[in-house]
TrEMBL record:
MF (Gene Ontology): hydrolase activity
SUPFAM superfamilies: beta-lactamase/transpeptidase-like
InterPro entries linked to this entry: Beta-lactam-related, Beta-lactam/transpept-like, Diverse_Enzym_Activities
Gene3D superfamilies with a match to the protein in the record: DD-peptidase/beta-lactamase superfamily
Entry keyword annotation includes rRNA processing: no
Record's protein name: Serine hydrolase
Keywords, ordered alphabetically: Hydrolase
Signal peptide positions (record): none
Ranges in coiled-coil conformation: none
Domain Beta-lactamase-related: 17-346
The organism of origin for this protein: Rhizobium lusitanum
Amino acid sequence: MPVFEDLLQRDALAEKIDALFHERVEQRATPGIRFAVFDRTGITFEGGHGHADTADRPPASHTRFRIASCTKSFTAAAILVLRDRGLLSLDTPVTHYVPALKPTLPEGRPEAPTVRMLLSMAGGLPTDDPWADRQESLSNAAFMAVLESGVRFATAPGTRYEYSNLGYALLGQVIEAVSGERYVDFVTNHLLSPLGLHETGFDPLSIAPERMATGFRDVDGNWLPLPFTGPGAFSAIGGAVTTTHDLARWAGWLGAAFDPASGGEEGPLSAASRREMQRIQCPIAPEPADDIRLKGYGFGLLVEHHIRFGPIVSHSGGYPGFSSHMRWNPQTGLGVVAFENATYSGAWTPTTAALDLLLDRASETGRPDDTQPSVVRDLSKGLLRLLTEGWDDMVADAIFLENVAMDRPYRERATELAALRERAGVLALDKLKILAADPGGADNGFGRFDLHLPCAAGEIVAKVLCGPPKPLRIQSITWRL
């Protein structure tokens, strides 16, 4: 599992990453930006560009920014703290805790969304970013009045993904109803303080002006400073104020739940519950152009399974005056957080590009012989023997599961392989590559693997799928030239 110090040409890599963020200021996407790169050991390097406020102070290590919807990870963790203490059930309808909500779908037999549905953005409520982002300081009494007058449902609860801030505002009310504490107090007392996140809070007006970034809006090429709103009934959707140091520590702690060397159980929420946050709970259809196999919302976090890098966990934040993004790869522990002080400016763009650079370099740093399990190398040697020395039933029996001969007799497979070998010509055995085809899977993803063997006629590719029984053997294989 690489750390940043292990990566090849890390100084040049750091310069390249820093340039991604500097470019945002040069392009006037934002007045200022602050970022931090982290691994299993903590923050490895950081930087800032532009100005953080109207006094043109640069964004520094401990400058605080609004992180908007990245706050939802704190809200989800707070719900799981209460669940793990036996104080609530995720499958209880939210109306048990917030009776003012009036469900309307399915028509004629309306159902209330459960706590689990709201956590995973499957509560049936409509997307509401522009409206909800202006409700932060709403009082609880005013929020109840909104609910009692009726809110619209877009779909029947539990039927599909739709991003809802209102759903997370309801979860804030659940936390208050169950714990007896204000939302901001519960998160502070039971998550922030135990983890030492002392630069994270919910009231920007309580922070010294020189330590608080100003949010801006672009008006005819000029940056117009925006006023702050204070904590209220919608703080649970996006009210947190923090530094890159604290948010990188938070993200690193969440990601450490997948690291067996970390001990896993430190902190106020178990490793199992943190892993639960980072698993797909409600699927989202990937865009056709995405390099994503699977995509979905966990609990307070977005989860994607990249075709090259395996699972990537993230969340974005957009608020009047601010944009934020946190992103990490649980397999490697590498991650990036970044803040911008412009309205909905898109901090995810440079952050995503930065993590891709890190993961690209991490994949180059590890040598194949270090990552392939020995049993996969043995299976590959057996396949090469069948290809280069001719078919041998004893070799085949050693590497294949029993279904292989049943699905297609060995004599047919032998004929196919002999014809492929003749068409291929001279083989470049010294250039054989064994590539994992299941990023995110066990054994470094080698439960599925591909063989790539250059030859005079091009390249032989074998796609291999191993079966469930141990020891590992092959249940299907396809060859092509």
